[in-house]
Amino acid sequence: MKRIDTALPGVIILEPKVFSDDRGFFFESYSQRSFAECGIEATFVQANESFSAQKGTLRGLHFQNAPAAQAKLVRVARGAALDVVVDIRRGSPTYGQSVQVELTEDNKRMLFVPRGFAHGFLTLTDNVLFTYLVDALYDAAHDRSIRFDDPTLALEWPVAEPLLSAKDSAAPLLKDSDCNFVFGEI
Q: Is 132 a catalytic residue?
């Protein structure tokens, strides 16, 4: 497993070792030992899948407030997506900053998103299967969103009018969010 650090400390790209032959391929999408060697000590408790039929579907920016905050390990099993992570920890030196990573079925990259960050993705192809592991169970009472087009975040999405859920369309701006993450307390 190869670790690639991003501009946001703690947000890590992981490239698995892929074994390919004329039959196809094999790789470890999760290994506690390999992840620990890469500095990731999360204990994942839930696996999720998201299917998006249409290119240009945008999901996010999502997070769960403390005490139900979640770290995530995300990847694309089919298709391609632009994955976006935003630091929403008040007082952080990188507060409001983001990273974007293209995750595809071909590059097999995974992205680790620590607690205290909002996460979203835009499908770049039709029929995207997005999978993720989380280290805390889903908790509707703590589920939150931030506007994907919040002008203070200045995110560059490669589509003018993405397909959004009602929840994501109605999400508040970061400044109006009740996000309770504080740098150094997560």
A: yes
Owner of token pair 């990188």: 94
Of 127, 144, 148, 152, whose CA–CA distance to 49 is shortest?
127
Indicate which residue of 95, 132, 138, 142 is catalytic: 132
Annotated catalytic residue: which of 62, 95, 119, 138?
A: 62
Residue-wise pLDDT for 117-169, tens only, equals: 999 999 999 999 999 999 999 999 999 999 999 999 999 999 989 999 999 99
Residue 68 region by backbone torsions, left for phi larger than 0, else alpha for psi between -120 and 50, else beta: alpha
Catalytic site residue 62? yes
What pLDDT is recorded for position 160?
A: 87
